[in-house]
Specification:
By secondary structure, this protein is of the alpha+beta class. The chain is about 35% helix and about 15% strand. It has five helices and seven strands, in the order ββααββαβββαα. The strands form two sheets. Strands 2-1-3-4 form a four-stranded antiparallel β-sheet. A hairpin with a 2-residue loop joins strand 5 and strand 6. Helix 2 packs parallel to helix 5. The longest helix is centred in the last third of the chain and has 29 residues. About 30% of the residues are buried.
């Protein structure tokens, strides 16, 4: 499992930092391999989607639960099959999704398609859409894999934040650590 966000396209000339949008995807995974350009796309997407500037108001909003929105969340991959959040899924919902699994909760991952978890004892099946949809694909995993998924996601986000530190020192010179701390809070890494 990876944590991803949906690119929210913006005018690349609008901000002091410059980016190039990826040509083959509208989704970027957040981990230790996230490039400086992709971090710029992440920050720019957050700013544009929420109509904010890269300033202290933006950083303060990062600390407020559900104040900043962006599409994305938990991306599940196994055996060459990928199922990602759909329309209207919020980035911060990744944690609710994976922490609901031990309680057999199928927390919302968007609509059209509507990814759905089905529980059968220790086995979990994630469908890309309602199982009745003939075109839906699925991934199966066990409850014992859930804790590994959570640890893996948190490690990836910790590695991502190391790259954010570099980006912030280059593009938010006013107080780079405040931006890093705000992003840490936003990606929900400060919570248990």
């Amino acid at each position: 499992m990876k944590i991803c966000f949906d690119i929210y396209y913006f005018d690349v000339e609008k901000y002091a930092f410059k980016v190039e949008f990826p040509k083959r995807t509208g989704t970027i995974i957040l981990d230790g391999n996230t490039t400086q350009n992709e971090i710029g796309v992440f920050i720019g997407s957050l700013l544009e989607f929420n109509e904010l500037a890269l300033d202290s108001e933006f950083i303060s909003a990062l600390y407020l639960s559900e104040e900043i929105a962006l599409g994305g969340g938990a991306l599940f991959e196994k055996n060459g099959v990928s199922i990602k959040p759909s329309c209207c899924a919020d980035f911060q919902d990744w944690k609710d999704v994976i922490e609901g699994l031990p309680q057999h909760k199928s927390n919302w991952m968007g609509h059209d398609p509507s990814p759905t978890f089905i529980f059968n004892g220790d086995q979990i099946t994630l469908w890309s859409d309602e199982p009745a949809n003939e075109k839906a694909i699925s991934i199966e995993f066990s409850q014992t894999e859930v804790s590994d998924l959570i640890l893996s996601a948190k490690k990836d986000l910790t590695d991502f934040l190391r790259n954010v530190e570099i980006w912030a020192s280059n593009f938010y010179k006013e107080n780079p650590q405040s931006l890093v701390n705000g992003i840490r809070e936003y990606v929900l890494l400060n919570e248990s």
